[in-house]
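Query structure, 166 tokens:
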């Protein structure tokens, strides 16, 4: 039996999603489907069991938490997925108990990718980014990351100072 990563998560900062799209903002379910498709493509995901909303900023970004059945031993059963007008990515819950820490982790990981691209360094050990490694793409992404950091992150649920559950 796989251990669960649930004790790491502050569930007070997320909302379990139901199948009543009329009660949610326009575009949320489009981003949810994009996030589910992104996650389902990984070989370590057998099936998605539960979906939670961590934050949604229409036409900018969606922050989702998924509970899934892992295909592989040793894979946590919860993961954050960030989608929107930025490259999609997953963020583990180990150091990210809430949406704010997940977005902060995303921004930091993407900034490392941008720095490597701008300095013509390898990106193999960094967060996978489904964009061409061009300076133009890096500059576009850094502007979006600055927007997320300055305007979206302060509004995210949860605290960056929150006790990391062990």
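Result returned for the query:
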């Amino acid at each position: 039996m796989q251990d669960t990563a649930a004790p790491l998560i502050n569930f007070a900062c997320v909302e379990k999603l139901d199948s009543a799209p009329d009660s949610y903002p326009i575009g949320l379910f489009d981003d949810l489907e994009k996030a589910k498709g992104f996650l389902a493509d990984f070989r370590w995901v057998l099936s998605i069991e539960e979906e939670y909303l961590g934050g949604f900023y229409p036409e900018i970004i969606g922050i989702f938490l998924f509970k899934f059945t892992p295909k592989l031993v040793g894979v946590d059963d919860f993961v954050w997925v960030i989608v929107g007008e930025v490259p999609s990515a997953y963020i583990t819950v180990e150091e990210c108990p809430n949406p704010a820490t997940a977005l902060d982790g995303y921004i930091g990981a993407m900034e490392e990718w941008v720095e490597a691209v701008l300095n013509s360094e390898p990106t193999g050990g960094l967060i996978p980014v489904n964009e061409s490694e061009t300076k133009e793409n890096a500059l576009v992404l850094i502007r979006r990351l600055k927007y997320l950091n300055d305007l979206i992150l302060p509004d995210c649920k949860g605290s960056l100072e929150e006790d990391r559950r062990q």
